[in-house]
Fold this sequence. Notes:
This protein is 49% helix and 17% strand. By secondary structure, it is an alpha/beta fold.
Amino acid sequence: MGYNVAIDGPAGAGKxxxxxxxxxxxxxxxxxxxxxxxxxxxxxxxxxxxxxxxxKVIEACKDxxxxxxxxxxxxxxxxxxxxxxxxxxxxxVGQMTSKCSVIPEVRAKLLDLQRDLARTQDVIxxxxxxxxxxxxxxxxxxxxxxxxxxxxxxxxxxxxxxxEACDLDEIARDIKERDERDMNRETAPLRQAEDAVLVDxxxxxxxxxxxEIAGLCM
Length: 218
């Protein structure tokens, strides 16, 4: 039986960054569930499917194969054999992911794979509903969050560092809308599990967050 760590939280809270660092420190396998959902979102976008076209999304799930591999210690995500890692952080992909992840068939496509891995390996997963739905019996559960302002500034800095033009207020509005959507969706809404430890990273460094979460693990 694997040792499981679940990290949940809203968009832009730094879940993926923190989970990867904790996994490296503890020797766990990092399972980027968000990247897997984004892989499916890319599949839908490439087919010209809109998030509202539920029937088409469900049908497209049938021939989508999303896999995570590690090459030279770096995680790579493949969609039907093609490496799509460089496209995962596109804004359009993020929006499509948030909208499509409420569809039960989309979740079912990935859920079994994630659970099978957790049963046999020491893993750390991050997402919106890992501790509440995907791994309800996880050994450690963390709800990682930060203020909207902090999350928007982080995203703004990330985009400007890439040379992309963006507006801080618009990013903040998008984050608020995504929070509202994620927290009120019918299927697996974003919420803190009752037995999860709350970690607010608004005024913490990455190193401080990693140290706190790693300290909760075996």
